[in-house]
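Structural prep section.
Before we set up the soaks we want a predicted structure of the protein with glutathione in place, mainly to decide which crystallisation condition to try first. Input record follows.
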Amino acid sequence: MTKYMLVSFKTCPWVQRSAIILREKNTEFEFRHIEPDNRPDWFLAISPHKKVPTLTIDDKVTLFESNAINEYLDETISPRLHPEDPIQRAINRAWTDYVPTFASSVTGCAYAATEADYQKAIAKIPEAFDRLEKALEKQGSGPFFNGAKYSLVDAAYAPFLQRYLFLDRIHKIGQIEKYPRLKAWTEAIMNRPSTHSFPAAEFEEMYRANVKRRNSWVSQFVEPARAAAE
Ligand SMILES: N[C@@H](CCC(=O)N[C@@H](CS)C(=O)NCC(=O)O)C(=O)O
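Run finished without errors. Recording the tokens verbatim:
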């Protein structure tokens, strides 16, 4: 049996994207969490950009970059998540290529230092949401990006749609309601067990603690964790 080790920072969305694919394929893997501020030498030796995720296969070879990892997993472990049709596959890859732009539009507000910067970041969300809404209209009837069948595109967007919801609960953004297909897609993805590397409430708390620590403008709206308040 092939041995997989996925190296991670607990709240990294790019890691989450690869962990989702391993779970979708019912593949056992060692999930090794390291600290961003204390990356061990063994990790620096296997990660060319010093970033997570990395995926080590049979203690021999290490892959990096979540998209490359996911494409590899899809080529080597069934069930195939990419569509059979080459045109659909190209469309899926094109939308996966849009993830970094989408991600920075959606989570940019978490990093804004001032209210003005926060408002500027929020103003970028409708363009990203509108593009996805139109893509979903073209792709079919849901619940997933390609319709009934879950795909790599679903896994690629899941961590960022989830973070939008987290941010919306920290300080109301109120955008997703305007995009019915995107909203329904987000709900389907959140209900999919593979999305979650940790129990949902625990993970949200970890994310909120990160936002609080970041001391950005929105940090002031993160209420203390219930356990700490009691
Ligand atoms: N394009 C990369 C992005 C990975 C990435 O940015 N990971 C972050 C953690 S969420 C990281 O390792 N940052 C550390 C650094 O930039 O030094 C991928 O898709 O794998």
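Observations: The CA atoms of residues 14 and 99 lie 10 Å apart.
Flagged for discussion at group meeting.
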